[in-house]
Design goal:
Distance between the termini: 61 Å
Structural class: alpha/beta
Number of helices: 12
Bound molecules: ligand C2E, magnesium ion
Shape: globular
Strand order of the largest sheet: 1-2-4-5-6-7-8-9
Protein name: Diguanylate cyclase
Number of strands: 9
Amino acid sequence: ASKGAGRRRWQLFSHLMADDARLEYQVYRELPNALASQALFLHYQPQIDLATGAVIGVEALVRWRHNGDGFWMPNSFIPIIERDAALSRQLGRFLLHSAATAIARWRSDHYAFGRVSINICARHLQHSAFLDDLDETLDRYPGTAAYLTLELTETQALADLDKSARVLGEVRKRGIHVSLDDFGSGYASLQHVRELPLDVIKLDLQFVQNLEHDTEAFAVGYAALTLAEIHGAKVVAEGVEEARVVSLWRRLGGEVIQGYFFAKPMGERDWLDWLARYRPAARYAEIPRWRPT
Ligand code: C2E
Ligand code: MG
Ligand code: MG
Ligand code: MG
């Protein structure tokens, strides 16, 4: 019986492997075309400042439109792209260009969107051509820097800490903000994170969603807020779905929220409609802040 179970497990495993290999092959083969033909496109999710209720930013999240079976979500294909420097760079250049043109469109239509955040792969950030790619976009679309934020995941930033810190320093010199994504999900020591030049720290959704009931999640959230104070950075809680977490975050001293509670990621038309209709609610500012004594 145990032999049969073992074989079944192996079959399942080999199916998954075959699917992975097929997907990987497809991504390599189709990404350039997908980028050119707008099969890759962005959804947008707002970030709200609790003190004022204002929209202070919007994260651009990539989707892949596929013939026949709808969208591919990024968790399926981004890990494949992230392993390869050339693919990471292709995606990154697409994101820079898409963000810059979106910023130009939205500014000319007088939308108050704050900054646009894009997710950059470490292999692009650490590519020798990264700053050239960035400057090419900034030269072509002057004024973009003040409306742009680059997000980099904690694990990726720490893969080559010295290099990341140096490049991110250059990024900030241009007036672009730097955001540390998925804080708490890796194994970063606080000391290491301290060495990165940062404007924003994003508390990973797994901690945000457990803030209420899990002491460890609470501790990680508190660490993010403490670290942010040292940096003069803001902390974004990502993945907030419930009103109770909004007030808890505010009581803890957290300032910014991104999550389904306010809005899901939306196509550009829906996002701009949402933004045009959005009215800040003052009630979050009235929640008293808790401070340790
Ligand atoms: P991330 O950058 O941490 O993005 C946040 C993810 O949390 C998004 O998933 C978003 O839709 C989801 N989310 C936001 N609010 C809530 C909520 O209240 N509840 C729940 N359950 N989820 C929420 P998405 O769009 O599937 O993206 C997943 C990840 O894929 C991103 O995590 C990022 O690491 C990667 N990714 C997405 N777009 C890009 C991109 O353009 N470039 C790169 N390099 N990575 C990307
Ligand atoms: Mg992100
Ligand atoms: Mg994140
Ligand atoms: Mg994530």
